[in-house]
Inverse folding.
């Protein structure tokens, strides 16, 4: 394991009531509240974890999904390393709104290269018996809209919650690795025979 812990900011977005706060609380405190209140503005919690030998401090930002709190949540998007787009599998409207959430995030976080940004899609409330969105439909949206990883979770039953946050970390680490390769790939080779040509005026 490499010594120093990496601080990663992950943000949960999605309609009011899909279970963002419940996912964060399940992951960080292992508790579930069936009478949870709507979030006002934003809240965050940290959790340390190890993924593929890397020590990471995950700073999870939980935002208010209700439209009336838009101005309270958007200032906190900047600096996010990963965005968890969340819907509820028993609520078609929340699935339909994923595109708007992504758009809002890209705008307020001022993401320079949206097609490269690590989004992860979560279909929560997997424990519900009556679904409105099938796994296949959600997967299709993810592959058509940028090839995002898709995970189904239940904050209530603690299904795949750890897996969801670990996937977020993996996506960020993979992106970092990719960027490092790109930077090194673009390094100017001072000994290259092309050098005279490219520097010549
Ligand atoms: N059955 C079931 N209920 C859940 C699950 N996750 C959350 N809930 C319930 O759904 C309701 C809304 O959950 P929240 O976590 O408050 O939703 P939210 O996305 O944070 O909502 P906002 O804060 O308004 O944006 C609460 O009553 C939760 O108990 C789940 O996995 N399964
Ligand atoms: Mg909430």
């Amino acid at each position: 394991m490499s010594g120093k812990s990496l601080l990663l900011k992950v943000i949960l977005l999605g309609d009011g009531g899909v279970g963002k706060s419940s996912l964060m609380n399940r992951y960080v405190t292992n508790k579930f509240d069936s009478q949870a209140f709507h979030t006002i503005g934003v809240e965050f919690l940290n959790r340390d974890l190890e993924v593929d030998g890397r020590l990471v401090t995950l700073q999870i930002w939980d935002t208010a999904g209700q439209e009336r709190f838009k101005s309270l949540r958007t200032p906190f998007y900047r600096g996010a390393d990963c965005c968890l787009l969340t819907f509820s599998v028993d609520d078609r409207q929340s699935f339909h709104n994923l595109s708007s959430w992504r758009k809002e995030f890209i705008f307020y976080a001022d993401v320079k290269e949206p097609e490269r940004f690590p989004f992860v899609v979560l279909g929560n409330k997997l424990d519900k018996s009556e679904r409105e969105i099938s796994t296949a439909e959600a997967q299709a949206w993810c592959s058509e809209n940028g090839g995002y990883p898709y995970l189904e979770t239940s904050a209530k039953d603690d299904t795949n919650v750890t897996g969801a946050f670990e996937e977020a970390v993996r996506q960020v680490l993979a992106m970092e690795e990719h960027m490092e390769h790109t930077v090194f790939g673009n390094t100017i080779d001072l000994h290259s025979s092309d050098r005279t040509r490219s520097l010549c005026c």
